[in-house]
């Protein structure tokens, strides 16, 4: 398994004061269950309270943006982790759903101001999907949870009048 261009994951930031929604598609559940488990494990490891992690299953990847937006609009969550699995078939269906999921999640995050992490696999084969949903640090659900924690922490800091961070200067 050589995926050489990827960076080593940053250590998990503190999630002890964050509330996180996980939207997970049931389609290809043999993969998305593992993405969900990877995300939950990362959130626990980062100190998130059990009661601060809420999981919302949806039918498929197409429905993820709708649920992510609805969760964000409740005002109860600091970030949303979006998890799904699209495996390319012989029809253009894959491309339509993949584009709708990516664009829909991007729009929902922008419109609601709640950061959303993209843990939706788009692979050519089942093997590629399973490989990205294994136990350990390569799990893409874990990666999405880490991104959600980092972004929620950044948004909180940017919104705070006391500790507003400056970006790096060149
Ligand atoms: N949904 C997925 O999450 N992954 C897929 O691979 C997939 N395929 O192949 O069709 C899929 N389809 C269902 C879709 O997301 C919707 O749930 C469905 O169209 C109902 O709106």
Structure overview:
The protein is an alpha/beta fold and 170 residues long. It has a single domain, classed as Rossmann fold. Helices cover 43% and strands 17% of the residues. Bound molecules: 5-nitro-6-ribityl-amino-2,4(1H,3H)-pyrimidinedione. The site of 5-nitro-6-ribityl-amino-2,4(1H,3H)-pyrimidinedione has 16 residues, from strand 3 and helix 3.
Shape by Cα distribution: globular
**Small molecules bound:** 5-nitro-6-ribityl-amino-2,4(1H,3H)-pyrimidinedione
Q: Tell me the span between the first and last alpha carbons.
A: 36 Å
Largest sheet: 4 strands, parallel
Question: How many whole angstroms does the radius of gyration measure?
Answer: 16 Å
Count of strand segments: 4
How much of the sequence lies in strands comes to 15-25%
Residue windows where pLDDT falls under 50 for at least 5 positions: none
When the domains are counted, the total is 1
What is the CATH first-level class name?
Alpha Beta
**CATH H-level name... which superfamily?**
Lumazine/riboflavin synthase
Class per helix and strand makeup: alpha/beta
What is the CATH architecture descriptor? 3-Layer(aba) Sandwich
How are the strands ordered across the major sheet? 2-1-3-4
Which range best describes the helical content: under 10%, 10-25%, 25-40%, 40-55%, 55-70% or over 70%? 40-55%
Query: What oligomeric state do the depicted chains represent?
Result: single chain
Q: Looking at CATH, which topology would you report? A: Rossmann fold
Number of helical stretches of at least 4 residues: 5
What would the average pLDDT be, to the nearest integer? 93
